[in-house]
Automatic annotation (TrEMBL):
Protein's name in the database: Uncharacterized protein
Matching InterPro entries: YphA_Bacsu
Stored Pfam families: YphA
Species of the source: Oceanobacillus picturae
Tree of life domain: Bacteria
Record lineage: Bacteria, Bacillati, Bacillota, Bacilli, Bacillales
Length: 199
């Protein structure tokens, strides 16, 4: 239930930010429409085969693929996406097999691990968001498909997943704001500092 609240709260906050605070242009319009569509379709389910998918899950994947196609270093970003996908699917399998080993709440552990992995792998806010969104979405598909082969049913891309995605977005944006403010402060005081981990 908490993840659903996080999804709607952060989703509407992001929509307000893109609608009223982003620079006017085609990019802003596309982000606003994309976010609004994800929020509207979040309660709609689509059944394909034996797996139930959330309709906004498809919009999330399509939007991130389009974003990935407009970024530089697509091969590297694709490899990073694959890495995030494997890591996220492994974390879900780990949680399923031994939930006692998750030493922090899922709402904290998953965004923290995803955000730090993106920080290590990728440079730039848009690239990090794209890699995390697409990687976790594909990891969710891998996990659900694997469970369905064993006869276990699980909804794919449902509100708890979307809530974790929104918390991860907030964490990545927060890290980016800290990095930019520290870089600005370092330049102001002539301190050599490089906070970018990924090259």
């Amino acid at each position: 239930m908490a993840n659903e609240a996080y999804f709607y709260w952060v989703g509407w906050m992001l929509w307000i930010i893109t609608t009223f605070f982003m620079k006017r242009g085609k990019k802003r319009d596309l982000f606003t429409l994309w976010l609004l569509s994800i929020l509207i379709l979040s309660n709609t389910d689509v059944m394909i085969g034996e797996i139930v998918y959330n309709a906004s899950f498809f919009l999330l994947i399509i939007g991130t693929i389009i974003l990935l196609l407009h970024l530089k270093r697509q091969i590297y970003l694709t490899i990073s996406t694959f890495t995030i996908m494997l890591g996220y699917a492994s974390l879900l399998f780990w949680e399923k097999a031994a939930p006692i080993w998750l030493f922090w709440p899922r709402e904290v552990l998953v965004p923290l691990l995803l955000g730090l992995t993106a920080l290590l792998l990728v440079r730039g806010l848009e690239s990090r968001l794209c890699v995390v969104l697409l990687g976790t979405s594909l990891g969710e598909v891998v996990f659900s498909f694997t469970l369905s082969t064993y006869g276990l049913s699980r909804g794919t891309g449902e509100l708890p997943f979307l809530g974790n995605i929104m918390i991860t977005i907030v964490f990545i944006v927060f890290l980016d704001i800290i990095r930019k403010s520290r870089t600005k402060k370092a330049k102001h005081h002539n301190i050599p500092i490089d906070l970018e981990v990924a090259k």
